Amino acid sequence: MTQATAKPRMFSTVDLLTMAVIAVVAALLNSYVWFAVMNVATPLFAFLGPVGWIGASGVYMIAPVLVGLLIGRMGAATIYGLIQGFLEMLLGNPAGALSIVYAGLQGLSVDASLAVFRYKPTLPAALLGGAIGNLVADVIYLFVYGLATPGNLIVGGITALISGAVLGGLVAWLLVLALQRTGVVSRIGLKGYQEI
What is the pLDDT of residue 6? Predict the structure, then answer.
């Protein structure tokens, strides 16, 4: 790669502002809206037993995957996750300081998943990022709250992968495509999004 075509190593001001704006919106959603959505959606997954809530937990992965796809740089989703978790804690999220851990690990998982695809914004990258990020956060939740029985880990793990891929990765991918069509992402991250 020549120096003219190489990506800069530092985040641009636009990248940082994009992370900050999405972090504020996501922190508000995670602290107040998604809990209500989870309470309504959990009965739909009652057949999963005590881990039924995991069926709807993929919604928490929309923002980290969205940032990872939009910015397309190593560490973007991790930094974003730490910012979001800190904002959630400040906004009074019931998880408190654990919000920083959950969101940070979700971001780190998205970054690791996108690295497999060399940060190219593709549908498989989005699905993998959502699936792995949701799995990591939900397994930690199971251990922290004493729900980590072998059955719960197996059923919850499979459910987390599916929920994260569909509700997190796919929804984030569709949002990126919609933003690209409007021209909003012309100055953010990568160009050349793959169509579905």
Answer: 58
Per residue in 23-59, pLDDT tens? 999 999 988 898 888 888 889 999 999 999 999 999 9
Residue 172 in contact with residue 65, Cβ under 8 Å? yes
Residue 69 · residue 5 · CB < 8 Å = no
- Distance between CA atoms of 93 and 30, rounded to whole angstroms? 8
The residues of the chain scoring below 50 in pLDDT are 1, 190-196
Tell me the one-letter amino acid at 107: G
Question: Which CATH entry fits the domain spanning 13-187: 3.40.190, 1.20.1300, 1.10.1760, 1.10.287?
Answer: 1.10.1760
Single-letter code of the amino acid located at 21: V
Helix (H) or strand (E) holding 123: helix 123-144
Three-state SS at 46: helix
Tell me which residue has tokens 């999004």: 193
Other residues' Cβ atoms within 10 Å of the Cβ of residue 150: 7
CA dist., res. 46 & res. 51, Å (int): 8
Please enumerate in sequence order all residues whose Cβ is within 8 A of that of 75, keeping only pairs 6 or more positions apart, or say none. Answer: 111
Every domain of the chain and the residues it spans:
13-187
**Residue 146 tokens, joined:** 């004493």
Cα separation, 37 vs 85, in Å, equals: 19
